[in-house]
Design a protein that fits this description.
Helix content: 40-55%
Number of domains: 2
Strand content: 5-15%
Oligomer: single chain
Structural class: alpha/beta
Radius of gyration: 17 Å
CATH class of the largest domain: Alpha Beta
Strand order of the largest sheet: 2-1-3-4-5-6
Largest sheet: 6 strands, parallel
Distance between the termini: 45 Å
Order of helices and strands: EHEHEHEHEHEHHHHHH
CATH topology of the largest domain: Rossmann fold
Length: 219
């Protein structure tokens, strides 16, 4: 069973999410929270596998809560941000805080259920329409920082392919199919990418790629 904590200040939203999740044989609701502070406390108390995190909540917001949950003791819950707001800065802040995924509340129930399973499996997830717009926005706002692109241990051509796929929100299985390799091989490539970039997880690798303009390079 995948145990999910619901963090949203709207009681009706939490009720709807509970009904949706508990209809799935492999999902159960571990607890609920209405503020960022409550979400952090509930994550420590209930030790869920995944936190569905709203961004705009009274007092401490979801970005603040995400940052503290991610920095907590291991194994930590995976954090899937679920919000009505698709503003670029909110997405960037959530990912920089360590969120493992970002979906809009207008996503379909099927997309939400699949998203929970994806982040629980260790993959990163950002709604495709958000990924494309965020990439465009960041690429236009920042010139590539060449000193950050000069990695001590450069990425191989295959590792660059994997990083591009991560930025597109692809799962390990999708990357494996596209590159005609095994999922274990993909996991090895992802681990090497994280090590070379000096980041803690695949979501942070995507943030690095956005912020440096790496994905716009032709060389």
């Amino acid at each position: 069973m995948i145990r999910v904590l619901l963090a949203d200040d709207d009681a009706l939203v939490r009720t709807g999410l509970r009904v949706l999740l508990e209809a799935e044989p492999d999902l159960e609701v571990a607890g609920e929270a209405a503020t960022g502070s409550d979400a952090v406390a509930a994550a420590r108390r209930h030790r869920p596998d995944v936190v569905l995190m709203d961004v705009r909540m009274p007092g401490r917001d979801g970005v603040w809560a995400t940052r503290r949950i991610v920095a907590g003791p291991s194994p930590r819950p995976r954090v899937l941000v679920l919000t009505t707001f698709d503003l670029d800065q909110i997405v960037e802040d959530a990912l920089a805080a360590g969120a493992d995924g970002f979906l809009l509340k207008r996503s379909s129930p099927e997309q939400l259920i699949a998203g929970i399973r994806v982040v629980h499996a260790g993959d990163a997830l950002v709604a495709p329409e958000v990924t494309r717009r965020l990439l465009t926005t960041l690429a236009g706002r920042r010139a590539p920082e060449r000193h950050r692109l000069a990695l001590p241990d450069p990425l191989t051509e295959r590792e660059v392919d994997v990083l591009r796929a991560l930025a597109e929100g692809w799962s390990n299985a999708e990357i494996a199919a596209a590159l005609s390799v095994s999922i274990e091989t993909v996991r090895t490539h992802v681990k090497r990418v994280l090590t070379k970039l000096g980041v803690r997880d695949r979501t942070q690798a995507v943030v690095w790629a956005f912020r440096t303009g790496f994905l716009d390079r032709e060389d």
